[in-house]
Amino acid sequence: MKICVFLSAADLDECYTRPAREFAELIGKGGHTLVWGGSESGLMKVVADGVQESGGRLVGVSVDFLAAKARTDADEMVIARDLAERKALLLEKADAVVIMVGGTGTLDEATEILELRKHGKHDKPVVLLNTAGFYDGLRQQFQRMEDEGFLPVPLAELVFFAKDGVGALAYLEEWSGLR
């Protein structure tokens, strides 16, 4: 399975890097491919290292203004013109999407992917990996959107909230028929 992971390129605390590394190792050991932003920085590097060292493949999609930070030993690296093209290519190259901790860029990617799913523009499973309760507030906001009629489809059909990488990968493998 080709798993797109949206996440931060920042250097983060161990409470985020350790679970990210564990999830990456599950991807690699499962024989899956990581599709990610291609960066050799921060949490993106942690995940790419974990996948690659555990036997998985790396497919990166960087963007021209960040190409200097792109990983040089990825199995495949594409350089997009801009962020919009990058998001489209990441989704196109993946079978599933996992959203890990991140800042405004990750939040932008997450909301666009969910909006596209809501409108039936893709049917790929989307998992929010809620490491250390990072997305508790967002989950609460999404629930309010559903409760007050802002979502035309049930929240459970848009996104699965996983508390850890084991739960995230189990959900994706079940969805894809690998379990």
Describe this structure in words.
This protein has 179 residues and is an alpha/beta fold. The chain has 7 helices and 7 strands. A 7-stranded parallel sheet has the order 4-3-2-1-5-6-7, sandwiched between helices. Strand 1 (2-6), helix 1 (14-29) and strand 2 form a beta-alpha-beta unit. The longest helix has 16 residues, at 14-29. The radius of gyration is 15 Å and the shape is globular.
How many beta-strand elements? 7
End-to-end separation: 12 Å
Helix content: 40-55%
Number of helices: 7
Q: Specify the overall morphology.
A: globular
The gyration radius over C-alpha positions equals 15 Å
Short description:
Helix content is 45%, strand content 18%. With 179 residues, the chain is an alpha/beta fold. Helix 1 runs parallel beside helix 2.
